[in-house]
Protein: NAD(P)/FAD-dependent oxidoreductase
Organism: Imbroritus primus
Amino acid sequence: MPRDAGACRTRLSGARRRGQGVDLRMIPSIRRPSLVVIGNGMAGMRTVEELLAVAPHLYDITVFGAEPYGNYNRILLSPVLAGEKTLADIMIHPRAWYDEHGIALHAGDPVVAIDRGRCIVRARSGLEVRYDRLLLATGSSPFMLPVPGSDLPGVVSFRDIADVEAMLCVARSPRRRAVVIGGGLLGLEAANGLLRQGMEVTVVHLGDNLLDRQLDAPAAALLKQALEARGLHFMLGMNTTALLGEGHVHAVQFSNGQQIPADLVVMAAGVRPNIALAQAAHLHCERGIVVDDTLQTYDPRIYAVGECVQHRAATFGLVAPLWEQARVCATHLAGAGHRRYVQRATATKLKVTGIDLYSVGDFIGGPDSEDLMMRDPGRGIYKRLVLRQQRLVGAVLYGDVADGAWYADLIRDGVEVAAWRHRLLFGRLFCEAQAA
């Protein structure tokens, strides 16, 4: 990059900090630096949104996406499957938005190679674009069980619009039996959606409890009972060894030799960070693309956000940390880098209408912690709070989640709760009223 351009950007960065609206497009002698974003999903485009808010004219922005759409809310695919929302309802940035902000969008044309030496990305179409800064937001891929028959027609993941369309296609056909492999958040949301479409649905889970990463055993039992009342079937502690069929899946086989019929199999057994592109470019990767507290990779020109990253040994699958990563990354891309990404306790919710559950923090505890518990079977309410050294460190709520966000704030801020420990289960209003 020309030295004079870099010096100009330094002076202009100071002008921005003084509140002066500098538009590099009005200075013809300066070439605006190029920002290329690989990934047109929620994390990448949230970063672009944050960047446009603080430095709207700093970069020429080019976005590459694998799917032939604008940016949509992937979290709301479950309501689309259930028939509660349409695809139009979940679009965050239609194509017109990119045009309005001068962003070149290449949807359906994913990047297949990064040339770090030449600072160029190459798309599947052969298009090459130079970058001054590169943002990787490649997300994650569903984990497909490596068992015989996993490539049969009728076996799908639950990750994108194409997956939802494939599931709806089967649900509207004479084939009515669905098996969902995975009793986590995504699996239960897929199962509920297919049930709403009139299918007979069985959830197969390797563990003994549903949502075993988000709930303790008593809360998981209440959830299972509520979902069974809706018509879902469950097979827990089952290890899938093969998918059977000729031309189309027709059964699922387990390690004990048992088989159950299936016209549709949905793999919802977890996701893996998409790091193949970064690895091919020789960026440092472990489970994810390794980033520092500014979301910068080991290459100072390249940043990464979202489900593809690994920060301080952690990877991410929920939306709250992705939003915070986007804010931090955008400030550094804007040249106003004063933020640092700090991991915080993240809450879990299930997007199934009529099922209220909330978990956050360390809800299992250990020898140095104590539990506060409340059970009301008649109303289907269960609460468990985990304390360590007079501070709340975890919470599981089922049936009554009104105080979930407050408990999460107490955990995040490390508030000492000794003064109202005996009232904590009754929620914020009761604690604050008694304190007054």
User: Anything to note?
Assistant: Confidence is low (pLDDT under 50) at residues 1-21. Residues 356-435 form a domain with the Enolase-like; domain 1 fold (CATH 3.30.390.30). The CA atoms of residues 16 and 396 lie 45 Å apart. The chain has three domains: 32-141+272-333, 155-269, 356-435.
